[in-house]
Amino acid sequence: MGHGGRGTAATHQQQQQQHNGENPIAVKTAAVSARVLLLASRKRMITTAASGLQQQQLSTSLPPWLPLHASLALNLALVYYVVFINIAAAPGTHQHSNRGQQQLVPGSTSRQQDAARCSNSSNDHELLQQQQQGGANRDYRFCSCNNNSSSSTSAATAHKKPVQDFVFHDDDVQRPVTSAPHLSSSALEHAHECSSNGHFVVFDQQQQQQHEQQRSRPDRDDQLQRRRRRRRTGACHCHACFKGPQCAELATDCILNLSFGDPTMFESYWLALGSQATTSIPAWQGMSYFAHKHNAFLFVDPYLEQAIRELHSLVGNAVTKNRHIVVGVGSTQLFQAAIYALVSLQQPQAAAANSSTTPTNIVSAVPYYSAYPEVVSFQQSGKYRWAGDASKFQQGNADQKAAYIEIVTSPNNPEGSIRQAVLQDDASSYGSTIHDLAYYWPQYTPITATADYPVMLFTFSKITGHAGTRLGWAIVEDVRVATKMSEFIRVNTVGVSQDSQLRATTLIHTIINGHKQAKMKQKHVKDNGGEEEEEEEDEDHLVDYNTQQKQWRPFFHYGQTILEERWRQVLLVMEGHSLFNIPTYDQAFCSFLHKSFQPNPAFLWLECTDGQDCHQLLLKHRIVTRDGPSFGASSAFVRLSLLDRDSLFDLLLQRLASLR
């Protein structure tokens, strides 16, 4: 951990005092000088009057499909926001929760626009507000002041002007060309160059163009020369079990590792969207530890919070009104933060009643998520301990005097059923519950009710497939618990990556807008008597989403369709199979998708019928699983992921069928 986070409050106070003593005439003079300087330096890097630092035109563009596996996160949570949050205030009173009246979205990514519209104060940044007037959306821009400036230094906060009143052209600013190899953002390039079994890595395009220019002869046709200059060189980075220059060869003896829930199944969807959900990150944004100074949680970006609330409202799977949103580095960190918070508030009460300092028992019904005992035991805390199966704990805690925290995973990981708490929280017990709802989304299970529990955990990886973004959130009822969870995250990781938060915001809005557009399209078709207009296909987009239909599908419809088809194939392979048993599920009506269907769990919970060690049996056939004892079950059970890419899923079916 760097030393930059220490003494932050004291430093901020000193800076604020210095600012309050500044000469307002000097501030105005600096602002005017900066604007003159801005207009005179359109073809070169801008030097701000406040800092004197050169602003390099560098940015990072993140395609929506990269990375879907667990790797380094590169997402930016935009830190400039005009409606501030205070968690001590009554929940649900924030201005951004007033949907239908205004929509807050990220504003300027241009340092020139920030300088011109926000008095060229290096502490001010522009943001955008969309207000609905007369049935149409109109855009307005505002300045959001950071720690070292007040609202008086921001020219745009004194009055609102439509966006069209201000135009700044910076297309002629010279930008450096990225020379490092990078993954192609073209869906067709991955499909054509790497047979859809790998990623196409593009080499230095500028050097390649120069090389082609040197090779081309003057007597060649100009059009041919242009085609040669546009040609890009690269190489294929093959997925697991594939090899060859174009990843077209299946390595039949490869080890098929399905022990992790790596959600790369969704990659084809985000590839098909192309640049529609790409996140661009200017090099100078998100440099502070804090998302916004007025946010009591300090590290939670308000844009992301608004997007989370809107997503749950759209799907109807969790209550967010009068609840607090805590963002963490995936649900694993949030799980630890929730335990820390509940134990901190629970133990003093239990100790006062029992005169005991016995550690709080962490329990969950078998089969439980395999990471729970590992994470709890890894901390080696004297305040809590892993106590195993919740049902056995209930039998040994008849007097209800032992403190406990029950973790309820619903739908259950690994076997996919909807779960309820085994233990009952009442006035005579010292217990709490944490509901892990990572898979309570319509692609996995019908949404039958709106979840309403004191602590609910969600992970971004299982919603969109972006496990590499490393982001999750908790919906918390009690402000004391939310504050304690935030305290844990502050000490543990000094907050959450602003890059990750911005990317998550972009992807969530893409999902929301996709479903809204689908509803509008259905209404349009209905109004036109069932006739649908044909749309032109983008040659750079993959149209076939692994379904027979080629029309565009919203994300949750797509995910549910793919998983339903995968489970249909699994059931065909398992039908009459003498070696394995699998769970059965009942149909239920999904209030979001407006249809009845069986759950489509992310994992296959497999039982070997003869009682033998199922993990070792499948390992002999080059299938790596996670064994039953990891989930508190017997060695006759294993868990296999069904979320991998199509080619590896097909390979799994082949190997399971060969075991007949």
TrEMBL record:
Q: Which Gene3D superfamilies match?
A: Aspartate Aminotransferase, domain 1, EGF-like, alliinase, Type I PLP-dependent aspartate aminotransferase-like (Major domain)
Organism, per UniProt?
A: Sphagnum troendelagicum
Instruction: Output the Pfam families linked to this UniProt entry.
Output: Alliinase_C
Extent of Acidic residues compositional bias = 530-541
Which InterPro entries does the UniProt record give?
A: Alliinase_C, Alliinase_N_sf, Ethylene_sulfur-biosynth, PyrdxlP-dep_Trfase, PyrdxlP-dep_Trfase_major, PyrdxlP-dep_Trfase_small
| Ranges of Polar residues composition bias in the record | 94-133
Q: Which family does it belong to?
A: Belongs to the alliinase family.
Superkingdom of source: Eukaryota
SUPFAM superfamilies, alphabetized? PLP-dependent transferases (SSF53383)
> Which stretches are tagged as biased composition: Basic and acidic residues?
212-225
The name of this protein is Alliinase C-terminal domain-containing protein
UniProt entry keywords in alphabetical sequence = Pyridoxal phosphate
The prosthetic group or cofactor this protein requires is: pyridoxal 5'-phosphate
Region entry Disordered, spans: 1-25, 93-133, 205-228, 519-542
